[in-house]
Amino acid sequence: MPSIRARRAERRLHQAIRVALLGLAFTMATGASHAADGVPASSAAKAPYRIPAGPLGRTLSGVAVNAGVALSFDSALTDGLTSPEVSGSYSVPEVFSRLLEGSGLEFVGRGDGSYTLRRQPAEAQVPAGAATQTLPAVAVTAERLGAGSLPPAYEGGQVATGGRLGMLGNVDVMDAPFNITSYTSRTIEDQQVHSVAGILANDPSVRVSSTNSTHNEAFQIRGFEIFSPDIAINGLYGLLSPYRVTTEYAERIEVLKGPSALLGGISPNGSIGGGINIVTKRAADEPLTRLSAGYMSDGQLTTHADIGRRFGQDKEFGVRVNGAYRDGDTAMDGQSQRLALGSVGLDYRGERVRLSLDAIAQAEHLKGGAEFGMRFSGAVPAAPRASTVFLPGSYSNAYNRTVLAHGEFDLTPDVTLFGSYGTLNADRHAALGAPLADAQGNFSAVLSRERRYFDNASGEAGIRGRFHTGSVRHQLSASVSRFETETGFSQTLGTPVPSNIYHPAPVPQPQADPPGTPKTGTTRASSVALADTLSFADDRVLLTLGLRRQQLKVTNFSAASGAQTSRYDESATTPMAAVVVKPLSNLSLYANYIEGLTQGPTAPTNIPGLANPGQMFAPYKSKQYEVGAKMDFGRTTATVSLFQIKRPNSVIRDNTFTMDGQQRNRGIELNVFGEAARGVRLLGGVALLDGKVTKAATPALEGKTAVGVPGLQLNLGAEWDTPFLPGLTLTARGIRTSTQYVDAANTQQLPGWTRFDVGARYATRIAGRPIVLRANIENLFDKNYWSGVYGGSFVSLGSPRTLMLSATVDF
Predict the structure, then answer these.
(1) Which bin fits 539, alpha (ψ -120 to 50), beta or left (φ > 0)?
(2) Which of 76, 320, 364, 663 is the most buried (most CB within 10 A)?
(3) Are residues 95 and 159 in the same domain?
(4) Per the structure, how many domains does the chain have?
(5) Cα 399 to Cα 425: distance, rounded to the nearest angstrom
(6) Could you report the per-residue pLDDT of 108-150, keeping only the tens digit for each?
(7) Do 705 and 750 share a domain, yes or no?
(8) CA angle 287, 151, 47 (to 5 degrees)
(9) According to the 3-state scheme, what is the secondary structure of 332-348?
(10) How many angstroms separate the CA atoms of 358 and 364, rounded?
(11) Which conformational region is residue 315 in: left (phi greater than 0), alpha (psi within -120 to 50 degrees), or beta?
(12) What is d(CA 681, CA 667) in angstroms, rounded to the nearest whole number?
């Protein structure tokens, strides 16, 4: 029987979803006006733009994606041409006209709502050497890249030309002194991605470390683990589902490689290898009504509605509503999932003020397979069928509700105040297990019925300004941030039964629910930060220096008595120094030093004779050194990064728990994205990793390969727009991961594995409506494999072959 707290949480969730559906109905009813002849009704509405000079084809494609304009053209028309810098407020036709000035091309409608390019008539072009007329100066109001603006998509539309660097704001990829990738909503839709784990299958620096069937997703970036609570939304941590982060409301999924304590402060779990940020959708100038229906193996039906409208004389008010529902059997044996999601994104964009509000409600009911993975006491046996569920009686019911507000105010054209604040309420009721098997796969299966809650609040406020000191231009950012969380947990144990990984037995659930959900801990992290980017030599040299002072207060409580069991209040300072040098307009060389910050561990209380049980340790720092290069070839960009990250480890030495170990991960990353040839897009790369334990309590462990760090990670995807059938695109992706070790002594080993994914999509028009049909197959050859290591000791099973079909139509 669900608890009173669970019933209240479910009622609140249902209310939130009803609000989302009412908002959806309202926007459909009030914003369905269209102009005749395929010309958008709001094509004359002006919007702020700040577009740097660059390759013409890439710039036009990026602006079209962000403006919601269907633009297609022969890339040969724009080869070798450069667009001018454009800054100001323009309508859609005006901004394209400005970008095409002097190119000999013009922007024309096709009559079906889409656009193309064509050469201007000869009489409209100015012959070489002819007299030219000087037009009067036109004053425009420049706009900052604000709350509703994003870096445009790169050529091919799969990734963006930039992303958010925490307190520094949005930064172009060629100006960023880090390895960053920002995946677009187009990629999310085309690959039929339903959670963050799906989009990260494109990134060679990232691996999904959790098992496919689990309720709780986790990842590794540069060989270090990152959990769902460490995923940020619009720059703030701790406001998304602590278990599975869905993507229907995501406009961008940004991945930053490397520690980021200066950029965003300490994350809830202190992720070291990198960070993930979700950018929420906003209504575009053009009305959007997009409905999708789909099917996933082995019987799950999916629906998704995405509605966007803007209102007001200058389209200053925006509403974006997303609703999704999935229900049915998954590709895992005996597993079913029911997920309901509702989100509303509101925004206002004025001349000097930009505001936004997001509300997200999500409920997931997972029956069968809510497990952490499998542990082994000896050698790891061969993987069972990839669709195997080890604990058939397990389940997870999770609810979360997020509200997030953001605002920006321009004090002057060069000084902006900004602030964000959000809350998360999350509850979960589950029956879970953490099995330990022998080399033959035998284990004792037992479930624990648990209740858990999170009440989080996160906020940031600050100021950004631009000014000059002589010939040096500065972009100064200062911010204060605060994150608070209260957690509660309780559990009861069931009865163990004998089982085997190749033939799992049904597992009985505990007879009784836990009596309640007592508070077990509170955490408060507050910080103040200052950073300055100095530009020299006409922006060919960028130097960023920064410092963050972080205070961390942690208190733990007994679940049985409520009494305080431990507490600490510690502070730490984390610096950053980074430089970008551009010897050529399309070549960036960069280097950085940055530190990460992680909450200190607590000495275990279940080890007999330990001298300091329960002792809490201060936050510890990880340190990264990185150098790299980025080359933009106009339609394709390639990057290379070399890095080293050192992280302290806890060890037990002389019968005392202490921070005296060290793990060092070194690596080389090669990434490529863009359009390699007309109609051929590439996305992926390779990461070579060397993870070593350089200090350990046992000398014999020093020099061993770090747990869960493969030497090779390869991801390469390709898309081909077929010439024989316009609108048909074929896709393929290969993923390779080399050998990994499960234990510190390197005696337990996971074999390397390779997986292939394929897909196709067809874009056409039916009854005058744009429609896209998609089909994707993951793990085409249904390979059985252990994919990686979760939580330092659990072995994760890879994904089974999964078919995904969908149809999307715009009204």
Answers:
(1) left
(2) 320
(3) no
(4) 3
(5) 8
(6) 776 556 678 888 765 444 444 444 444 343 333 333 344 347 8
(7) yes
(8) 45
(9) CCCCEEEEEEEEEEEEE
(10) 20
(11) left
(12) 26
Give 482's strand partners: 459, 526
On whether both 272 and 286 belong to a single domain, the answer is: no
CA distances from 135 to 105, 139, 701, 757 (A): 20, 12, 74, 55
Assess whether 192 and 259 both reside in one domain. Answer: yes
Which tokens in the block code for residue 376?
Answer: 């082994």
Count of CB atoms within 10 A of residue 2's CB? 14
- Residue 316 and residue 808: Cα distance in Å, rounded? 28
- For the packed helices 92-99 and 56-67, what is the interaxial angle rounded to 10 degrees? 170
Cα separation, 538 vs 468, in Å, equals 12
Contacts of 698 (CB under 8 A, 6+ apart): none
Residue 621 φ then ψ, to 5°: -105, 145
The answer to whether residue 602 sits within a structural domain is yes
Read off the pLDDT of each residue in 763-780 and give the average, rounded to a whole number: 95
User: What are the tens digits of pLDDT across the range 34-62?
Assistant: 332 333 434 455 666 768 777 788 788 77
Same domain, residue pair 257 and 392: no
Domain containing 740 equals 280-810
For residue 219, being part of any structural domain is answered with: yes
- Residue at 110 is within a domain: yes
Cα diameter, the chain? 93
Pick from 344-348, 388-392, 513-517, 586-590: least confident: 513-517
| Tokens 């234990």 sit on residue | 743
Question: In this structure, is residue 17 part of a structural domain?
Answer: no
| 257 and 301 co-located in one domain | no
Q: In what order do the strands lie in the sheet with 224-227?
A: 206-208, 218-221, 224-227
Q: Among the listed ranges 76-85, 145-154, 202-211, 453-462, which one has the minimum average pLDDT value?
A: 145-154
If asked whether residues 169 and 186 sit together in one domain, one would say yes
Q: Verify that 259 and 325 share a domain, yes or no.
A: no
Residue 10 has pLDDT above 60, yes or no: no
Domain of 483, CATH number, reads 2.40.170.20
Mean pLDDT of the 203-229 span: 91
CA distance 746 to 380: 12
Q: Residue 276 in contact with residue 230, Cβ under 8 Å?
A: yes
> Residue 253 corresponds to which tokens in the numbers above?
């999924």
What's the pTM? 0.83
